[in-house]
């Protein structure tokens, strides 16, 4: 499943993800990722059960505060990266538009050149 994809690129990203999902190595990686996620959820559940069984609010509070600090740091870093990624994507989109315009201009000029060459040949034949 694609992530961090701009809305106007979502169809292409979904198509690429679906195509990649047919490859055996991608399926194997997906199974491994699912297994790791399941292991992680189970480990978290076991830790929560242990903390609840101990009834130690101090340790739980310390864990909460540590996770909140980490989350704030990660969220701030991600916001910075998202902004930079958006700028790069905007530049890439602009470059793609410029490239398409340049290609269209080349095609137009090549067609014009071919037409002029044809007219020249006809003129030479008519004069010759």
Quick take:
The protein has 128 residues and is an all-alpha fold. It is built from three helices and no strands. It is elongated and about 105 Å long.
- Estimate the helix proportion, in percent: over 70%
Largest sheet: none
SSE topology string:
HHH
Rg, nearest Å? 29 Å
Low-pLDDT sequence parts: none
What is the overall pLDDT average?
89
Task: Please give the oligomerization state of what you see.
Answer: single chain
Q: Can you lay out the helices and strands and say which pair or pack?
A:
Blueprint: H1 10-20, H2 24-54, H3 57-127
Overview of the molecule:
The N and C termini lie far apart (67 Å). The protein has a domain at 1-55. The protein is elongated. It has helices at residues 10-20, 24-54, 57-127. Helices cover 88% and strands 0% of the residues. With 128 residues, it is an all-alpha fold.
Record keyword descriptors for this entry:
single chain; 128 residues; mainly alpha
């Amino acid at each position: 499943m694609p992530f961090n994809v701009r809305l106007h690129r979502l169809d292409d990203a979904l198509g690429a993800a679906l195509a990649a999902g047919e490859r055996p190595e991608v399926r194997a990686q997906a199974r491994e990722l699912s297994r790791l996620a399941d292991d992680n959820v189970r480990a978290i559940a076991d830790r929560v059960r242990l903390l609840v069984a101990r009834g130690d609010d101090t340790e739980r509070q310390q864990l909460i505060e540590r996770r909140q600090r980490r989350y704030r740091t990660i969220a701030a870093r991600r916001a910075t990266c998202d902004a930079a990624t958006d700028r790069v994507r905007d530049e890439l989109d602009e470059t793609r538009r410029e490239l398409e315009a340049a290609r269209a201009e080349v095609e137009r000029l090549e067609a014009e050149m071919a037409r002029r060459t044809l007219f020249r040949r006809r003129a030479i034949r008519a004069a010759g």
